[in-house]
Amino acid sequence: MHAPDSVAGTDVRETGTPLVRCENAARTYGSGVGAVVAVHGLSCEVPPGARIAVVGPSGSGKSTLLHLMAGLDRPTAGRVSHPGLGDEDAVGLARHIGIVFQGPSLLPPLTAVENVALPMRIDGVAEDEAGSRARAALVSLGLEELAGRLPDELSAGQAQRVAVARVLARRPRLVLADEPTGQLDRETGRQVLSVLLGTADELSAAVLVTTHDPRVARELDVQWYMADGRLIQPATDPGAGRREVRP
Ligand SMILES: Nc1ncnc2c1ncn2[C@@H]1O[C@H](COP(=O)(O)OP(=O)(O)O)[C@@H](O)[C@H]1O
Ligand SMILES: [Mg+2]
C-alpha cells in the first residue's frame, strides 16, 4: 500500500495548499419543476499527493463533482477554487489537471503517439519535444508497440492505458479519473488502475478516482462517499479532519 505521507519525501498533506477547494459548491441542471440538483452544496479539499476514491451509485453526482473540480463545469451556487494550482483560468488549469474519462477519449484519426502528443502541442510544446515526451510516456507504460496504431486498432484496455499515457506525458499535478475502469473487465480494470496510480506516484500528483466499485475504491488511500448529490467524508479517516474546509 502506498504510504500517504511520503509523497516527494515530505508530509505534503500537512503543509500543502489544497489543489482544489469546494465551498458549498452546488450544481443544478435546468430550472423550475424540472430542475435536477446533481450536487448539493458540498465542501471538500484535495491536498497535494492525496489519493481519493469518490464512491457512489450511478446518478449520485460523481461525474458532476469531478467536472466541477476539473473546471469543465461551473457551480450554480458556492465556489470551486484551485489555490494550490495558482487559481488560474480554465486554460491555465488545464495544464495542471489531467483527466481520464470512462469511455473512449482518443481521437480516431490520430495514432496513439499522436493522441498522447496532442495536448502538449495545444499547450505550445514544440513538435519534437511533444513527440519524444509522448513516446517516453508510452514506453514507461509498456505501450511502445502500440505507438503507431489507430484507436480502432486498440482494445478498450489498451486505449484506456494510452489515455493514461496522455495524462502522464503532460505532467499534471492533479489527476481526475471518472470511472476509468467502468467499461473494462475486472482484470483489465485492475491493470489500468495500477498504471494510473503508478503514474500519479511518478508525477507526485494527487489523484481522485470516481467509482461505483468498492474493490476499486479500496486501492485508494481515502474513500469519500456520494449519495443523492451529497458527499460524506468519514470521520474515521485519520486524514479527514485535515481535509475539511474550515469556516
Ligand atoms: N447534463 C445534464 N442534464 C440534466 N441532468 C443531468 C445532467 N448531467 C447529470 N444530470 C443528472 O445529475 C445527477 C448526477 O449525475 P452524475 O453526476 O452523472 O452522476 P454519476 O456520475 O454519479 O452517475 C443525475 O440525476 C443525472 O441524471
Ligand atoms: Mg458518472
From TrEMBL:
The superkingdom of the source organism is: Bacteria
Keywords carried by this UniProt record: ATP-binding, Nucleotide-binding, Transport
Could you confirm whether the keyword Acetylation appears in this record? Answer: no
A Pfam family reported for this protein in Swiss-Prot or TrEMBL: ABC_tran
Output this protein's name: ABC transporter ATP-binding protein
Q: Which residues form the ABC transporter domain?
A: 20-247
* Biological source species: Streptomyces bugieae
Q: Which GO terms describe its molecular function?
A: ATP binding
PANTHER family registered for this protein in UniProt: ABC TRANSPORTER RELATED (PTHR24220:SF685), IMPORT ATP-BINDING PROTEIN (PTHR24220)
InterPro entries recorded for this chain? AAA+_ATPase, ABC_transporter-like_ATP-bd, ABC_transporter-like_CS, ABC_transpr_LolD-like, MacB-like_ATP-bd, P-loop_NTPase
What SUPFAM superfamilies does the entry give? P-loop containing nucleoside triphosphate hydrolases
Q: Does the keyword Transmembrane helix apply?
A: no
